[in-house]
Amino acid sequence: MSKKVTAYDVTLRDGTQGEGVSFSIEDKIRVSHKIDELGVGYIEGGWPGSNDRDEGFFKKARKEKYKNAKLVAFGSTRRARQKCDQDFNIQSLLNANTSTITIVGKAWDFHVSEALKITNDENLELISDSISYLSKRVDEVFFDAEHFFDGYKANKKYAIQCLKSALNSGAKGIILCDTNGGSTPWEIEKIVEAAKKIKKKCILGIHTHNDSDLGVANALQAVISGADQVQGTINGYGERCGNANLCSIIANLNLKMGINCIPNSNLEKLYEVSNFINDLANLPKNKKLPFVGKSAFTHKGGIHVSAIIKNNLTYEHIEPNSVGNHRRILVSDLSGKSNIIYKLKELNIYNQISDKNVIQILNELKTLENEGYEFEGVDASFELLVKRISGHYKPKIELIETEINTRQIIPSSKSTARVKIKINDEIIEHASSGLGPVNALDIALKKALVKYYPDLDGVELNDYNVRVVTGSRGTASLVRVIIESTDGKSTWSTIGVSRDIVEASWKALIDSIEYKLMD
Q1: 351 partner at 20 to 30 Å CA-CA among 17, 32, 97, 456?
Q2: Is pLDDT at 29 greater than 80 in this prediction?
Q3: Distance CA 352, CA 386 (A)
Q4: For position 503, which CATH number holds?
Q5: Do 232 and 251 form a contact (C-beta atoms < 8 A)?
Q6: C-alpha distances in angstroms, 483 versus 179, 469, 480, 488?
Q7: Alpha helix locations (H) across 391-500?
Q8: Of the candidates 387, 414, 437, which is a domain's last residue?
Q9: Are the C-beta atoms of 389 and 360 separated by less than 8 Å?
Q10: Domain count across the chain
Q11: pTM of the full predicted structure?
């Protein structure tokens, strides 16, 4: 398919309407530059007439330089019974000082009567007046035909009239919006083809939501049917179930459909951009995102891994690095020898391990997983296990005794921990207070060790997760503790399992320190 399709990003406007998504003005500037690096054609910065933050963004963005994208201000048609030169939203759009403006207007007669409480003809006047006014003052005006697909299904003649009104008033492009996200690809195909028959050269865009889990599929179908601009948000952020994920749209267009929505040389930035924006939004990572998710090229089953080692195309639809992602092999009770060998090579310790060791590691792994351990994503504990079995590692710390006391004083509590350990045949004892027993234990252990191992002074806990593995015994249930540690340069994860949460935490803490001290 030889055609040009322009990517239009709406993360900073539609994406921020999603639950839990919020960016400061400075965040929005950083996000806009990161998206610009991808090579998209347009970045919708927000709705300047609706809130101070978006107005502040456009004011600050005037001083910014973008290499690839045009910055777009978004707003609605003028209010009923009000002239454009007196309409606050219209004037705010002009004050944003962008060369491109996108205006949203109703294209479903149901919304015209129920939401706007005006006649169909009055709505057409809102569209034509707003676009005519703005198109004389900026380079480009796009018309977002809100609820177009639902409107077409209810009253196709009127929906098309809305498009014609926009085009006849100077719109450079019309964007067909599946605002409620309820359309299907076969409906998209038919309706986009009908809109394409309007006898006027213009940009034809598609804007889909994911309420039926068809956002990306609908966007791609629209492109096949004639759309040459495609809108979406990074990671699919957006109201309700989100917008179509622009990362998936771009990857499919470039890699599967032969359409350079962005330059192919920029595709490998997709993973980085996805994670950068997710981290800035401070949201939990969705590992299952296609193309850019951490699990997108992750393999666990032994048969799968064995085949992947021979040829990755056996269980991967593209090369992971083509979108900046990477392959991950997990080790678990479902593992075969191939999983272990791949992981050993990944950790650069394969040459130290014999074939006999591999069988021992696999058997021990399955035994431990049956006891509640889970070695997916805890490479530090896995490496310690491997080196212990193969004889390449001897623990430096021997626990002799721990004592923990917690005193509840309303409205807070205080915990103290005492640890007694042996290092190089020397008995060391230390006590510390902390915010809870695990924190007190962590502090006491570090203080006992830092004199002998100064590098531990810079080690901190990044994350601490507790999960009940078996809940049938109430508070005596088996618990799994996974901690993530960092020394400022690298991070590593370790695991501990016990019916005692403090003991499980101790095991994870000791593994973390042993890993740091491991030669």
Answers
A1: 456
A2: yes
A3: 10
A4: 3.30.160.270
A5: no
A6: 42, 16, 10, 15
A7: 437-449
A8: 387
A9: yes
A10: 3
A11: 0.78
Instruction: List, in order, residues 6 or more apart from 345 with CB less than 8 Å away.
Output: none
pLDDT over 90 at 414, yes or no: no
Specify burial of residue 436 (Cβ count, 10 A radius: 0-12, 13-18, 19+). Answer: middle
pLDDT at 1: 46
The three-state secondary structure class of 142 is strand
Cβ atoms of 465 and 475 closer than 8 Å: no
Alpha carbon separation from 62 to 24, 34, 56, 57, 66 (Å, rounded): 17, 17, 10, 9, 10
Q: Which residues contact 9 (CB under 8 A, 6 or more apart)?
A: 35, 40, 42, 43, 44, 69, 231, 232, 233, 234, 246
Q: How far apart are CA 260 and CA 12, in angstroms?
A: 23
- Out of 366-370, 448-452, 512-516, pick the least confident: 366-370
Q: Are 378 and 495 in contact (CB under 8 A)?
A: yes
Helix (H, G, I), strand (E, B) or coil at 262: coil
CA-based radius of gyration for the chain: 29
Question: Structural domain of residue 203, as residue ranges?
Answer: 6-281
DSSP state of 275: H
pLDDT at residue 470 tops 70: no
> pLDDT tens-digit profile of 259-309?
999 999 999 999 999 999 998 998 888 999 999 998 899 888 778 878 887
* 272 and 312 housed in the same domain: no
N- to C-terminal Cα separation, the chain = 55
Same domain? For 252 and 338 the reply is: no
Residue 172 has pLDDT above 80, yes or no: yes
Q: Summarize the confidence of residues 383-400 as an average pLDDT.
A: 84
**Over the stretch 201-240, which tens digit does the pLDDT of each residue have?**
899 999 999 999 999 999 999 999 999 999 999 999 999 9
* Residue 428 near residue 421, CB atoms below 8 Å: yes
From CA 361, how far away is CA 284, in angstroms rounded? Answer: 33
Q: Which two tokens stand for residue 429?
A: 């004892």
